Recover the amino acids of this structure.
């Protein structure tokens, strides 16, 4: 059988954007949290909470848009735990984040029992008039679902706010040198709370993409490690929302590629292919764990460090 | 200072600005009243540009930063006051002097009419200090008020119109600069005629305890930090090391306590070759160390005074019960140190982090001095301590010298070096510029050597 290579490549790229979108949402949120100095490794848990909350709401009301809004609210509410524990109580951010992952997995599993086997409303693909006709790019980017289009709007706004507004300047300063920001009347606590909650909301939306667009059902632990992949992606993106899009599609591409190669039936064991995105994650994390490289990539200087005034 | 910038609240009295009584409750209040403060340690975000640092906190929410317009205003201000700095540069690219200018610009941008400067020249080169003075004069011409806090009399004489002398938190006199002279000011500062106190020195020196021959070492960045140092310290002698901070002092202290490896030369302590020995072997061979970084290096801040006091010696039989530590012995030991050194602490179980600077230093001295030691390495021992604690530290060092210890005293305080040391060596760029007799050393020639002149050039 002759496979048309051109068609295959376009199909893989289109799938790459689709698989990249959920982690792109999560990544934008985490970039904001980390830029303000709060590491949240509970992405996996927040995604699952968003996925089940979004699916349940969407299923009940019969409208996926309501599902997405509820998912964002649920993610933000869930991340409030992390904000309180790490910002107000100044506890260890890693420990708190891990707790969120475990808790989120448990909660979503518990509330998801009733939803197993149900098929909910979802976002269907539709072509954007005009743009979809551009050769190759039109198919790849503009024959997608509404949430993908939403991400096209979110990314530039996130970038613009981060680099061009006073809010963004305050966020970046709080993550680099909270004492400086504090001395100029910027509230470190408020900025950090805001960023962590935003991160939670975006993780919720990313989770909802999985249960309302990528599939239209709830599967236990359906995030499948995407939260962890996102942590690596934040580093890959150099804490820059625009570069996050590039990275997300790269990871999405790795995911899409392995599915297609399986489908085409190349003689490579499936398990190796399924490992692809995770191998990429581990490689990036290992490289990024070198302190000197972290600095060069632009890791916020105060990342992971609780802030207390006049501490010796 | 902290009261005027709204960090501390005054317990009594009133503050008037432009004739109007005010209450300053937070740094923001002070900024709004037109008070700008330049701290000794700059508050700048290293990875942001000059302009970003200046406008931080001035707008809120989604308002555009408008860097271009802000940049123009910054450029105009720096033009007007002679504060040359590139508004688009990143802070990490700037020299210390330029960073200070950014701090001043930050205040001016916020409309400060009153500028407070805390020891502004401490971190500057002489040329940068001269530039700063030019700026300050131009600000004065343009109607700004400036409060210049310094302990350098010549600077105060050079830049001020009026001078107020503070001693122990009290105003002991305000004078017009043109009506006074440095001598009168220093008398006011100490409250009596300055007596240049020299500690009595032992009649004769003992045998050499520390012999350093041609030692070189790398600094933390892997570059040469010390180059070809050679000197000896004898029993009963204090060898002072003078120099501007960052000229190899830290590396020297670490090399002669075994904390930093040497790349060339040899180290002999009490007749034993210790060139490549570990820190623990130095301790066992009678070397004690009082480091400059009290919180970071000298103690474990979150541990109790008791635990910290046995850190050096916990391996000794005396503190052991089988394979375990004997905490009752350790506690008794700590209590003894507290009494002997008069350390003010709520209890021996208090975390040392919460001790005051003076008491912390006493605790460190107590630990380092109570073991039998042949060589004592002391760095910046009295920095930041009050008069009483300073006196105590100096007395203690002097006593130990008389008991026959060899002491290496590294300090930036020339008066301290001159009053305690037998000889003074001057470090510059990791090299010894010369070693002079403390009794006859002149401040001027020490100063020249600290700036890089060799002893031969100074005296010859």
């Amino acid at each position: 059988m002759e496979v048309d290579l051109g068609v295959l490549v376009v199909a893989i790229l289109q799938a790459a954007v689709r698989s990249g979108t959920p982690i792109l949402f999560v990544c934008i949120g985490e970039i904001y949290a980390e830029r303000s100095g709060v590491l949240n490794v509970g992405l996996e848990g927040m995604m699952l909470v968003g996925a089940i909350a979004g699916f349940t709401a969407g299923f009940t009301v019969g409208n996926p848009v309501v599902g997405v809004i509820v998912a964002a609210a649920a993610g933000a509410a869930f991340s409030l735990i992390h904000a309180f524990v790490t910002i107000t109580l100044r506890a260890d951010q890693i420990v708190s984040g891990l707790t969120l992952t475990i808790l989120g997995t448990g909660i979503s599993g518990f509330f998801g029992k009733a939803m197993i086997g149900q098929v909910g409303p979802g976002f269907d693909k539709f072509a954007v008039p005009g743009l979809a006709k551009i050769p190759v790019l039109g198919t790849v980017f503009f024959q997608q679902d509404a949430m993908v289009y939403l991400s096209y709007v979110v990314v530039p706004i996130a970038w613009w706010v981060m680099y061009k507004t006073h809010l963004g300047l305050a966020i970046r300063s709080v993550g680099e040198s909270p004492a400086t920001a504090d001395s100029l009347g910027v509230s470190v606590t408020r900025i950090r709370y805001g960023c962590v909650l935003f991160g939670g909301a975006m993780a919720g939306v990313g989770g909802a993409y999985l249960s309302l667009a990528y599939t239209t059902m709830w599967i236990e632990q359906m995030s499948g490690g995407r939260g962890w992949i996102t942590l690596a992606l934040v580093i890959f993106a150099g804490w820059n929302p625009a570069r996050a899009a590039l990275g997300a599609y790269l990871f999405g591409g790795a995911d899409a590629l392995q599915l297609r190669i399986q489908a085409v039936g190349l003689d490579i064991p499936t398990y190796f292919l399924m490992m692809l995105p995770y191998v990429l994650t581990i490689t990036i994390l290992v490289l990024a764990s070198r302190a000197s490289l972290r600095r060069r990539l632009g890791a916020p200087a105060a990342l992971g460090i609780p802030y207390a005034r006049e501490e010796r | 200072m902290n009261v005027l910038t709204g960090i501390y609240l005054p317990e009594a009295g009133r503050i008037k600005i432009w004739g109007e009584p005010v209450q300053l409750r937070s740094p923001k209040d002070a900024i709004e009243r037109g008070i700008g403060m330049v701290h000794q340690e700059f508050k700048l975000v290293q990875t942001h540009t000059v302009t970003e640092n200046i406008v931080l906190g001035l707008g809120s929410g989604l308002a555009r930063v408008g860097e271009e317009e802000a940049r123009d205003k910054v450029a105009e201000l720096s033009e007007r006051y002679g504060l040359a700095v590139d508004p688009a540069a990143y802070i990490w690219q700037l020299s210390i002097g330029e960073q200070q200018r950014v701090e001043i610009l930050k205040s001016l941008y916020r409309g400060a009419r009153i500028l407070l400067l805390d020891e502004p020249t401490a971190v500057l080169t002489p040329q940068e200090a001269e530039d700063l003075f030019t700026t300050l004069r131009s600000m004065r011409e343009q109607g700004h008020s400036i409060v210049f806090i310094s302990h350098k009399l010549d600077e105060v004489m050079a830049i001020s119109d009026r001078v107020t002398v503070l001693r122990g938190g009290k105003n002991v006199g305000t004078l017009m600069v043109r009506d006074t002279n440095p001598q009168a000011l220093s008398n006011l500062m100490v409250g009596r005629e300055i007596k240049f106190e020299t500690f009595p020195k032992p009649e004769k020196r003992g045998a050499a305890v520390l012999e350093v021959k041609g030692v070189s070492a790398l600094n933390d960045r892997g570059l040469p930090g010390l180059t070809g140092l050679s000197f000896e310290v004898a029993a009963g002698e204090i060898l002072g090391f003078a120099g501007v901070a960052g000229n190899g002092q830290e590396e020297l202290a670490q090399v002669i306590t075994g904390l930093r490896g040497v790349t060339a030369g040899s180290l002999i302590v009490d007749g034993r070759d210790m060139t490549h020995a570990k820190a623990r072997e130095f301790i066992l061979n009678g070397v004690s160390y009082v480091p400059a970084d009290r919180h970071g290096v000298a103690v474990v801040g979150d541990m109790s005074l008791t635990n910290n006091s046995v850190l050096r010696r916990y391996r000794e039989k005396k503190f052991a019960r089988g394979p375990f530590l004997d905490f009752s012995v350790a506690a008794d030991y700590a209590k003894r140190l507290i009494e002997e050194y008069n350390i003010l602490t709520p209890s021996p179980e208090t975390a040392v982090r919460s001790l005051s600077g003076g008491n912390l230093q006493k605790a460190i001295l107590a630990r380092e001095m109570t073991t039998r030691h042949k060589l004592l390495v002391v760095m910046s021992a009295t920095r930041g301590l009050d008069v009483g604690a300073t006196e105590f530290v100096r007395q203690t060092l002097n006593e130990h010298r008389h008991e026959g210890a060899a002491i290496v005293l590294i300090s930036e305080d020339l008066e301290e070096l001159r009053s305690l040391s037998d000889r003074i060596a001057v470090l510059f760029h990791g090299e010894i510029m010369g070693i002079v007799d403390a009794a006859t050393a002149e401040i001027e020639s020490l100063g020249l050597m600290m700036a890089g002149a060799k002893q031969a050039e100074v005296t010859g």
